[in-house]
């Protein structure tokens, strides 16, 4: 088997006195979208933030394309080709949509061909290009947050709950955009609570509970096994179609 693009081994993270990650083992194959599922408080967001160096691991390793990320600062990790879409979107409300995109581009230069591709996925960004990002709706801000991670080719994109609080029509648009991003062979690790979205997009899946990965496999197999869904997640994916 090929070496996975991202591998977490025995990963522990403390935040103050709290021991959040308690030995996370996770592999993310190159060219796939891996869903990271689990109940609230399981450690999913902390996992993404630890990968990006926003939280420091207290033990274990994070390997990306054979490189150890542990000693690197967040900007250095990003320069390796890793994009990050945080749960809070991280949009600069006082800057225009264009300025938000420029900040995410290496050297502040936007590639027009790639920009046209992004506009085809998120037409609202073209309409509001010169307006403050604070004027956007919640769904449009999420589109901007994802577009910033797509403004340059990335080997890996980490996305934290992109559908949170969004209307079903906006979720459908995000699913289509993520499917298009998958076609570029970009590797994606996504935290998501919307199981319709998880089923539509996921190739592989890892389920976390209490700071550990308690299940890993193929998303289609989890989606087809309601008993396993209930045991791991306390609910059925079929109830969230």
UniProtKB/TrEMBL annotation:
<keyword id="KW-0813">Transport</keyword>
<dbReference type="InterPro" id="IPR052156">
    <property type="entry name" value="BCAA_Transport_ATP-bd_LivF"/>
</dbReference>
<dbReference type="GO" id="GO:0015807">
    <property type="term" value="P:L-amino acid transport"/>
</dbReference>
<keyword id="KW-0547">Nucleotide-binding</keyword>
<comment type="similarity">
    <text>Belongs to the ABC transporter superfamily.</text>
</comment>
<dbReference type="InterPro" id="IPR003439">
    <property type="entry name" value="ABC_transporter-like_ATP-bd"/>
</dbReference>
<keyword id="KW-0029">Amino-acid transport</keyword>
<dbReference type="InterPro" id="IPR017871">
    <property type="entry name" value="ABC_transporter-like_CS"/>
</dbReference>
<keyword id="KW-0067">ATP-binding</keyword>
<dbReference type="InterPro" id="IPR027417">
    <property type="entry name" value="P-loop_NTPase"/>
</dbReference>
<dbReference type="GO" id="GO:0015658">
    <property type="term" value="F:branched-chain amino acid transmembrane transporter activity"/>
</dbReference>
<protein>
    <submittedName>
        <fullName>Amino acid/amide ABC transporter ATP-binding protein 2, HAAT family</fullName>
    </submittedName>
</protein>
<dbReference type="InterPro" id="IPR003593">
    <property type="entry name" value="AAA+_ATPase"/>
</dbReference>
<dbReference type="Pfam" id="PF00005">
    <property type="entry name" value="ABC_tran"/>
</dbReference>
<dbReference type="GO" id="GO:0016887">
    <property type="term" value="F:ATP hydrolysis activity"/>
</dbReference>
<dbReference type="GO" id="GO:0005524">
    <property type="term" value="F:ATP binding"/>
</dbReference>
<feature type="domain" description="ABC transporter">
    <location>
        <begin position="6"/>
        <end position="235"/>
    </location>
</feature>
């Amino acid at each position: 088997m090929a070496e996975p693009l991202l591998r977490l081994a025995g990963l522990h993270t403390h935040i103050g006195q709290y021991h959040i990650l308690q030995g996370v083992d996770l592999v993310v194959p190159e060219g796939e979208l891996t869903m990271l599922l689990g109940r609230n408080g399981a450690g999913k967001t902390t996992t993404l933030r630890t990968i990006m160096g926003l939280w420091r691991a207290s033990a274990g390793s994070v390997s990306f394309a054979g490189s150890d990320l542990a000693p690197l600062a967040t900007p250095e990790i990003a320069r390796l080709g890793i994009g990050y879409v945080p749960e809070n979107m991280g949009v600069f409300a006082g800057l225009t949509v264009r300025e938000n995109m420029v900040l995410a581009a290496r050297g502040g230069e936007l590639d027009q061909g790639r920009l046209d591709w992004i506009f085809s996925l998120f037409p609202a960004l073209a309409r509001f290009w010169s307006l403050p990002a604070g004027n956007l709706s919640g769904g449009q801000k999420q589109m901007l947050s994802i577009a910033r991670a797509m403004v340059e080719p990335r080997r890996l994109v980490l996305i934290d709950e992109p559908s949170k609080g969004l209307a079903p029509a906006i979720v459908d648009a995000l699913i289509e955009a993520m499917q298009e991003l998958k076609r570029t062979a970009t590797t994606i690790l996504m935290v998501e609570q919307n199981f319709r979205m998880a089923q539509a997009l996921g190739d592989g899946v890892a389920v976390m509970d209490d700071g550990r990965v308690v299940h890993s496999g193929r998303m289609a197999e989890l989606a087809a096994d309601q008993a396993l869904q209930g045991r791991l997640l306390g609910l059925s994916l079929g109830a969230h179609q």
